[in-house]
Amino acid sequence: MIDPTKEQEKNYLFLIDLQKYAIGELRDGVTCKDVYQKVVDKINADRPDLLQYFAKTAGFGMGIEFRDPAYPLSAKGTRQLKSDMVVALTLGFNNIPDGKNSQYALSLIDTIQITKDGGKILSEGMKGKDDVMFYMEEEDKKPSRSAQKDAPARRNAAPTAVVKSKLRNENREIDADAINRRKQHQRELAARRQEEGLDKYSGEGGTGGNNREKQWRRFESYVKDSQLPDAVASQKIVVDARRLTIILPINGFAVPFHVNTLKSLVKQEEGDYTVLRFLFTTPGAISGKKEDTPFEDPNATFIRGLTYRSTDSFRFTELHKEINDLKRAAVKRENERKEMADVVEQDKLVEIKGKRPIRLTEVQLRPSFDGKRQAGDVEIHSNGIRYQSSVKSEQRLDVLFSNIKHLFFQPCDNELIVILHIHLKSPIMIGKKKTKDVQFFREVSDASFDETGNKKRKRNYHDEDELEAEQEERKRRADLNKYFKAFSDKIAEASNGRVEVDIPFRELGFQGVPFRSNVLLQPTTDTLVFLTEPPFLVLTLNEIEIAHLERVQYGLKNFDLVFVFRDFTRTPVHINTIPSNQLDTVKEWLDSVDIPFSEGPVNLNWQAIMKTVNDDPYDFFKEGGWGFLSEKDNASDGSDESEEGSEFAASSAEDESDFEDESEFSDASDDDSGTADDLSDSGEDWSDAEARLEKKEKMKGRGDDSDDGRKKSKSAVKSKSSKGRK
């Protein structure tokens, strides 16, 4: 009821009281007409003015048929009501005048079960005054005088799609105080980072222990001459694959070279000879990322290359192939050694004895042991958890509590799987794969049961069946969330406080491309994660030094986000293609977790920046640290900056000019654009403005024609004068 009158409100409240009275009279043994008569007597006693508007029936019985004609609650109903019968109690007043030459009706209908002590409502709903009556504001009821004057014109105006606002965000309220508080907080965070950097790197020679000097690795093929193979006596090139060494004859001596000292091997055909050219690694001969490769003594004498030729092309071809294979094997072995350098050997898992361990059943593991999806169980033991495959007994994975850095539980709301994710402190091996993330998940869909035929489902694809399927899926999701959440809490409890459960906040998430695909990145209390599918992303917030927003400028639909870690040797993480409409959301989140951020209009060369930082961190912070990233913001505020500090400001101005040139008014001349501005400032109609523009175009066209005519006349005069001279 919208804006009911006092009389309408009074009649509705009486109808509620009348229904309560009638429900009390619906008891075992009473006849239908007696119930109706008692309701009529109640109306006649309390509100006789409403008796003439009362309905002719107070309801009907419900049984095999929806409306049972044998049990009408009216003056004609002669049958008795029995216990546990069900009736529909319909009380109402029809055609009540409201004093404004119109009528209205009131009705209340509920399903009632007959009992010995009175009726029992089976369809209880909201019918109180506050639930059904709504009152509009007084301002809406009484429009202003100006609105009353404009009302006829508005009613007669034709519908249009033109909106009053000219800009998309014109009506959006901007909280200036919140923006100023955020800027002040960011300045405090930046100053704190600057102080921490100076304190951290002021000692230990200005490096703070951060610079790790590359050590020269000594490759020793043989300790003594007796270890040389017997084949060297033939004064030929010998390849010792066991010791990764190439033995070359030089002036009658067998000289061993470790394969890691070999830069490249070149084979060429020169007439009847086949030439092998050995090129070795020497100072100044390396270009690119390995330019800083250390040498034990850079001032020593090095052999840069050796060349051998022979008429036995078959042997040199075999040597070329054998040495290249040896070089590839050595490089592969070295890469594996570097890859496995940070892999830890965990302690043994202490199994629980005397009782059954808490178990999470029928879950899948990522990454899997052999690339195949297999179900298994996860058990909680004294000092860690164990995953045991249900197919192969040898596929077992132990994760100790001491190696767990973060434990995440991601519910299956708006997702296809429910996830229990573990981010490790040190990587471990799963099969032949090194990983720092272990995930246990279960799919929400029951399609696997339908495909295998283990569970035969009867589907008629009617509305009732679809509704039932949706309710089943909703219940299944809730049960899975409860099951996985309880197990994750048990892990945290068994770890004695070393591990806490973290849940992603989906409402704070934002889209981005951390790897190759666009995903939803979700913040948690301590991290920023993406856990739905590999490759996973887990960024610990307290390990982040700063964040920088790139490509933040007018006209672009996306921007990028770069995280720089406190450990400057780690490569910065890039999250690309974040929608520009989520810029404020990202800024608010970064500020709330105390991460200082800056923004700029272009992408920066972070490889060169981090190399400068790692070369001398103390000098970097002494010269201002990360302040160079925010110089563009300071310049935009109107402060005078040097030429170096205003580079970004200049580039942004050029970009803005480019966008203006590419706008829909780019085909107009400077004069025309100025005229259009004048017209927009004036109060002229569009038709008048268009007529003025056309007139100006015609005048301009005549001016161009007159100029052409002047040029033609000048040329004609010149030609006549030249003829006269002749």
Q: What can be said about the biggest beta sheet?
A: 8 strands, mixed
Supply the CATH superfamily name of the domain at 506-654.
Pleckstrin-homology domain (PH domain)/Phosphotyrosine-binding domain (PTB)
Q: Mind telling me the CATH class of the domain at 506-654?
A: Mainly Beta
Q: What CATH architecture of the domain at 506-654 would you give? A: Roll
- Strand arrangement, major sheet: 15-14-13-12-18-17-16-19
Tell me the number of helical segments per DSSP (H or I, 4 or more residues long).
16
Proportion of residues in helical segments? 25-40%
Our estimate of the beta-strand percent is 15-25%
Tell me the Rg in angstroms. 43 Å
Structural class: alpha+beta
Query: Overall mean pLDDT score?
Result: 79
Structure summary, number of beta strands: 27
- From the N-terminal CA to the C-terminal CA, the straight-line distance is 105 Å
CATH topology of the domain at 506-654: PH-domain like
Point out poorly predicted stretches.
Answer: 138-142, 144-164, 288-292, 448-460, 636-684, 708-726
Shape: elongated
